[in-house]
TrEMBL record:
All residue ranges annotated as the Peptidase S12 Pab87-related C-terminal domain in the record: 421-508
SUPFAM superfamilies: beta-lactamase/transpeptidase-like
Signal sequence residues: 1-37
Name used for this protein in its record: Serine hydrolase
Protein species of origin: Aliidiomarina sedimenti
Keywords from the UniProt entry: Signal
Length: 540
C-alpha cells in the first residue's frame, strides 16, 4: 500500500502531466531559432537531427531522447525512433526512460539538502543514522562515513548491476544487512570500488534523518520544485493511462528484442529513477549557471553543490599523459578536449543514459536510449564540438569501429571458452542426488529441483523470479540459463565430498561482463560462490 505522501505525489504527477507537456513545447524554442541553428547546425555539417538519427539506425537503437541545456535554457529537446519495437509509438521529450545510475547524484543531492538544514554532516558515521549497518570488519563498520558511501571508498564492490540481480524482491534494509557477509574487494579507503548497495545505504540515511522514505523525499524535495512532474523512483509508480514509457530492449543472439522491465527498488537510491529528457533538463539546470539555483530559487547551497562536484577520490587512468580523473558525489570529474566536465552514465540490461555537464560553456547534455549500446558518447561529443566550435571529428565512426572490434574480440573469447567443452562426459550424480537446498551466508539460498521436463532447474532466493534451467556442460559442470533472457546465463558445478556425495553447488556470478551484447561470459569481473548443501544425499 502506498503511503499518503506517496499518493499525494502520484496525484501531483497526474495533475501536472498535461500542463507540463504543453508548457515545455514552447520552452524548447526559448532561444531564437537562428541562434539554435548556428550553435547546433553549423555550416558544413549535417544537421544535428540527421546526425543523431543516422547513428541511431546504424546502432539499431529502437528509441532515443536528447536534451541540451545552455545558459539556463533548453535549446534542444527531441525524441528519435520508437518507445518499443512492439508498440511503434514515437519517442518524444516527455517519454520516460530508466536512467539507472544517474540516480546516484540525486541521492547525493537529497543528502545535501539535509546537510544544508543542519540535520547531518558529510562526515557523520553511517552507524549514527543506520544502527543496523554492518560490514565484515567491525572497525570499518564503525569508521565508514557518508562521504565514503558517496565516493565509492568503502571497498565492498558490487552486488547488483546490469544483468546481476541480487535478492530482487528483498527490502533495502535486508540487502544492506547482507553486506556483513561480503568480503571487501579492496581495503577501506584504499581506492575507488563502485558499489550500488552503498548508495542504497546512503538513501536509507535520507529516510532515517528526514522521517520519510527516500522515494517520497526525492519526489517532494527534488522532483516537485524542479518541475520534474513526469519523473518517479520506481516502475511500480507507472500508471495504466500513461502510454509514453519506453520499453527496454537488448541485443540477444543477433537480434535487438524487447525484454522484461526491471525493478530496482531493492537498491533504488542507486539506480531506480525513471524520467524524461525534458525533466532531466530541469535537473541539469540546477547544476549549471548558479549551481543550486533553479528558476531564481535556491534549492541547495553553493557550498553543498561544490562538494558534490569536488574531487573526492582519484580514478584510474590509462597512462600518465591522460588528464587526472576523479569522482565526486555521484559525478565523474573528467575533461574533454581541454574542457572540464562532470558526468555520469546509467546502464542496465535495457536502458543506457549519458549525462554530461560542461560548466565552462554553461552546457548540459542528456542522451537516453532504450537498449544497451555504446552510441551515446558519440552524440555527446558531437554536440560539445558544435557548441564549442571545435574541429569536427567523426565520432560515430570512431565509436562504431571500436565497438565492432570489441564485439569480435569478446565473441572470439566466448568461442574459446565454449571450445573447452568436453563431449561425451557424464555427471557423477543423478538428478535426484543433485536436487536439494544449498545455502551461503551472503547469497542466501538456492533450490535445485527436477523440473517438469525432466531436467534440472535453479531457484534463487525463493522469490518466484530468479529461475534458471540447467544444461549439462561437461563432467559436473552445467550452464544455467535464466528464464528472463536478458539475464543470460552462468556456469555452475556440483562438488563432491570424501564419501562421494554431493557436497555443494558452486556458482560464478558475473559482476560485469566483458560486453553485455555478447552475454555473461566472457567476464573479467566475477565472484565464485560456494553454496553448502543443507541435506546430504546418499553416495552414488
Amino acid at each position: 500500500m502506498l503511503s499518503s505522501s506517496r499518493l499525494s505525489i502520484a496525484n501531483f504527477h497526474s495533475a501536472m502531466r498535461q500542463l507540463v507537456v504543453a508548457a515545455s513545447a514552447a520552452a524548447v524554442l526559448c532561444l531564437p531559432v537562428a541562434t539554435q541553428a548556428a550553435q547546433l547546425n553549423p555550416d558544413g555539417r549535417v544537421s544535428l537531427d540527421d546526425y543523431i538519427e543516422r547513428g541511431r539506425v546504424q546502432w539499431q537503437v529502437p528509441g532515443l531522447a536528447v536534451a541540451i541545456v545552455q545558459n539556463d535554457q533548453i535549446i534542444y529537446a527531441k525524441g528519435f525512433g520508437v518507445l518499443g519495437l512492439d508498440q511503434q509509438q514515437a519517442v518524444n521529450p516527455h517519454s520516460l526512460f530508466g536512467v539507472a545510475s544517474t540516480t546516484k547524484a540525486m541521492t547525493a543531492a537529497a543528502l545535501g539538502i539535509l546537510v544544508d538544514e543542519g540535520k547531518l554532516d558529510w562526515d557523520d558515521r553511517v552507524t549514527d543514522h543506520l544502527p543496523y549497518f554492518q560490514l565484515s570488519d567491525p572497525w570499518v563498520t564503525h569508521e565508514v562515513r557518508i562521504r565514503d558511501l558517496l565516493s565509492h571508498q568503502v571497498g565492498v564492490g558490487r552486488m547488483t548491476g546490469n544483468q546481476l540481480r541480487y535478492m530482487p524482491t528483498a527490502s533495502r534494509e535486508t540487502v544492506i544487512r547482507q553486506m556483513r557477509h561480503l568480503e571487501p574487494e579492496a581495503p577501506f579507503r584504499s581506492r575507488y570500488v563502485y558499489s550500488n548497495v552503498m548508495y542504497s545505504a546512503a538513501g536509507e540515511i535520507v529516510a532515517a534523518v528526514s522521517g520519510m522514505s527516500w522515494d517520497d523525499f526525492i519526489a517532494e524535495r527534488l522532483f516537485a520544485p524542479l518541475n520534474m512532474a513526469r519523473s518517479n523512483t520506481s516502475i511500480t509508480q507507472f500508471t495504466a493511462d500513461d502510454d509514453n514509457i519506453a520499453w527496454p530492449h537488448q541485443y540477444i543472439e543477433g537480434d535487438i528484442v524487447p525484454i522484461q522491465r526491471r525493478n530496482f527498488d531493492n537498491v533504488g537510491p542507486s539506480a531506480s529513477v525513471n524520467t524524461s529528457a525534458h525533466d532531466m533538463a530541469q535537473w541539469i539546470r540546477l547544476q549549471l549557471g548558479e549551481p543550486g539555483v533553479y528558476a531564481g530559487e535556491r534549492l541547495i547551497s553553493e557550498e553543498t553543490m561544490q562538494q558534490m562536484h569536488h574531487p573526492q577520490i582519484a580514478l584510474s587512468r590509462s597512462d600518465r599523459n591522460e588528464p587526472v580523473r576523479a569522482y565526486g558525489f555521484g559525478w565523474t570529474l573528467d575533461s574533454y578536449r581541454g574542457l572540464a566536465t562532470s558526468s555520469h552514465g546509467g546502464a542496465t540490461d535495457g536502458f543506457n543514459t549519458s549525462l554530461t555537464l560542461v560548466p565552462e560553456l554553461d552546457l548540459g547534455i542528456v542522451v537516453m536510449t532504450n537498449t544497451f549500446e555504446n552510441y551515446r558518447p558519440a552524440v555527446v561529443n558531437e554536440i560539445i564540438d558544435r557548441v564549442a566550435e571545435l574541429p569536427a571529428k567523426d565520432w560515430q565512426r570512431e565509436y562504431f569501429d571500436a565497438y565492432q572490434a570489441r564485439f569480435e574480440q569478446a565473441m572470439e573469447e566466448r568461442e574459446r571458452i565454449e571450445a573447452t567443452r568436453q563431449t561425451g562426459t557424464q555427471p557423477s550424480f543423478t538428478l535426484t542426488q543433485m536436487a536439494g537446498r544449498y545455502v551461503d551466508d551472503l547469497y542466501g539460498e538456492v533450490e535445485v529441483y527436477v523440473n517438469d521436463n525432466g531436467g534440472l532447474s535453479l531457484h534463487l532466493w525463493n522469490d518466484g523470479q530468479s529461475l534458471l534451467d540447467l544444461e549439462h556442460w561437461h563432467h559436473n559442470t552445467w550452464r544455467a540459463s535464466y528464464h528472463n533472457r536478458a539475464q543470460r546465463e552462468k556456469f555452475v558445478y556440483f562438488s563432491m565430498d570424501a564419501q562421494g556425495r554431493v557436497e555443494g553447488l558452486n556458482v560464478r556470478f558475473t559482476l560485469r561482463p566483458v560486453l553485455t551484447q555478447v552475454g555473461l561470459y566472457p567476464t573479467n569481473y566475477y565472484r565464485d560462490v560456494h553454496f553448502s548443501r543443507e541435506t546430504t544425499p546418499e553416495a552414488p
